[in-house]
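RETRY 2/3 - previous attempt timed out on the joint model. Re-submitting the same 425-residue input unchanged.
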Amino acid sequence: MAGQSARDIKRRINSVKNMRQITKAMEMVAAAKLRRAQAQVLSSRPFTDKLREVLARVVSAARKGEGGVSHPLLDVRKEVSRVLYVLITADRGLAGGYNVNVIRRFQSLLDEETREVAVVAIGRKGRDYLRKRGIEPLREYVNLGDEIEYAVARSIAAELMEDFTSGRFDEINMVYTEFVSVVSQRPVVQRLLPVAEPEGESDEAALEYIYEPDPASVINILLPRFVETQVYGVLMEAKASELGARMTAMRNATDNATEMIDQLTLNYNRARQAGITKEISEIVGGAEAIAAE
Amino acid sequence: MLRLEVVTPERRVLSTEAESVIVPGVDGYIGFLKNHAPLVAGMSVGIVQFGPERGEKRRVAVTGGFVEVADNRVTVLADTAELDTEIDVGRAQAARERAEKRLRSGSPEIDRARAEAALQRALNRLRAARAI
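RETRY 2/3 succeeded.
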């Protein structure tokens, strides 16, 4: 830091302090939003759990009956030649490795893919990446906001179900980031369609249920909702991961800024001390020169 | 007594005890009392009613979903659900007028099905709130 005047250092300290204020604020905002997102996940559980349980039971009941189970959303194609990926990223950056990690995971899948592939982009970062690579997304959804609305998940799910049942795609996978904890998130791939039949518990299934009007109709009602709740759940999970990643990234930035301020303050004091010492020696030198005359 | 739970994908709307529960099944209203046989039924747009077997019942406006009954527990899983006391009558009224206007305008294929569905939902909410 030699050659830097005390005033220059002071200016740098102030600018780092301003940055720290911003990162600190962003950390707190992300933390508050994360709490809300986690509460949202919890309040969606009763519906999702019950739906899964009832679906498993009715599917196993219908399988015992004549005709078995068949539904367009359960249809496993003999030959999977066209695959649709749903890439879920954030709209904004400053979230550490969040976007990079999930995009890298997606790219490695794409590199190995030999089948015909199309991509639906959820989140601006993923869309921009695809465009840059010269891949035009089949559809894009940006600015979904920090609180995922069920109606939004529902309309996304409806379009995906249409992509599948129309025969345009034989398989639909979602690439998103799983929320392990506030400090740890992991990119994962999950198949959305065809629906993997939920596993049922045998003792529950033993209860003989009446299905109104009949098991097939009930499956018709349950399956689309099951897909909707899966999309909803994945969107919420990705959002929680994004907020967790942003919070951690901003906390690190704040800590780094604090460290930098400490170091700069030390330099500042040293430079100030050096200045004072210099002044004193000049005065003393001047006084001695006068006394010598 | 029956344990009644009304949940939507977004939240738990209601958890209470009731002697009787009536739900809008796909083929008409279905009523449940104590010790009903286990059942799963689809629901259409309509009103879930609950309360004493005879007398005034509370109402919940729902828009489709399904209901499960087992062990004296009635679980209503609805796409959306609004308790009579939470319904904003002014907003429902406005939605009704909007939908009616759109239907009356009769311009070709302005998504008639959607306007129709919106009207049904608005009317349903008004009925649940006893505003019509």
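Residues 62 and 81 of chain B are 4 Å apart (CA to CA). Closing ticket.
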